Amino acid sequence: MSLKEEFEQYAEKVKTLPSATNDDLLILYGLYKQATVGDVNTDRPGLFDPKGKAKWDAWKANEGKSQDDAMSNYITKAKQLLEAAGLSA
């Protein structure tokens, strides 16, 4: 299985998580965006969009990371969360 296929598989599995902290979800979001889009290519949302700012910041935190590294990190984090939730990774 290629890295991209494994990444896509875990991206689907993460949707079955019964619960995860906002911090964990933001980490996954930032890694997902870096893996699929690359470096941030939009302006930071304004004062009246705190959720958008948090997501943008999570993505920005991964700036400069290669897409393959972001995929690997996403898979590692997803495995940790799935195992902590008692789901098979």
Structure description:
With 89 residues, the protein is mostly helical. The chain has a single domain, classed as Acyl-CoA Binding Protein. The protein contains 4 helices and no strands. It has helices at 3-14, 22-36, 50-60, 67-84. Helix 1 packs parallel to helix 4 and helix 2 packs antiparallel against helix 4. The model has no long low-confidence stretch (mean pLDDT 95).
What oligomeric arrangement do these chains adopt?
Answer: single chain
User: Mean pLDDT score, rounded?
Assistant: 95
Number of strands: 0
Instruction: Give the distance, in angstroms, between the N- and C-terminal Cα atoms.
Output: 15 Å
Radius of gyration: 13 Å
List the helices and strands and how they pair.
Elements (H helix, E strand, L loop, with lengths): L2 H12 L7 H15 L13 H11 L6 H18 L5
Helix pairs in contact: 1-4, 2-3, 2-4
